[in-house]
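Progress against Task 2.4 (sequence-to-structure conversion) is shown through the following example record, which the project officer requested during the mid-term review.
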Amino acid sequence: MNVVISDIDGTLLGDEEGLAAFNKYISSVRDRVMLIYASGRSYDEYLSAVEHEGLLYPDAVISSTGADIYTRNGDIYEKDIRWNEIIDSDGWDIQKVRSLLDGFPGMVSQTARNNYKASYNMGMTGQKALIAAVTDIIKNNGIGAKIIASHGMYLDVLPKKCDKGEAAFYLVNRLNISAQDVIVAGDSENDVDLFRKFRHGIIVGNAHHAMKQLLKGGDFYEAKNHAAAGLLEGLKHYMTKKVFKI
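Structure tokens generated for the chain above:
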């Protein structure tokens, strides 16, 4: 069975016609393809996208940039508590992170709260210096954390072992699925770790330049079409290479 692990915003969303075509195709092969979303959105924000923006219900959801995993069990989704236990180590301290960074000059805390993710909006200028300053603060205070900047405006602070790629790799192993059968798709820097964990990936046509630079030299498919249309284009490419087998 093949597995498609896709980001939501900018990868599935952004082209209504493309999303409709993708949904139609995936629905026709759903008995042979597992669909997983890996998003920076919180779980509640993901639910809003399903209910109001036309997304299919997936087999699993990796939310909050890898901080949480939910798997489908019949009509409900169950949170993977074991994953939270794994990432809640190596000096992670969400309260300390927030006490240091909430109100930090140049950053605005996002409203969605998670015990394993602190998210901020950055100003449009001085971002490199800001990211360097945050990195130093986190390191100097002994916090085991990973810092991911994306979309030219967001900054996420996560546990050291946490990102979309780590969460996806853990989930695939838990489901006893070979990594060779996984195809990932994304459009921004917070998707890069997915591509570093799996061999087959689709960079949609509207992907951010920073993401493309980080993945430069990798053997991934760069779609011409944007958003979901680009994702579908990439799946057809991998079908011709007999990687995506249905």
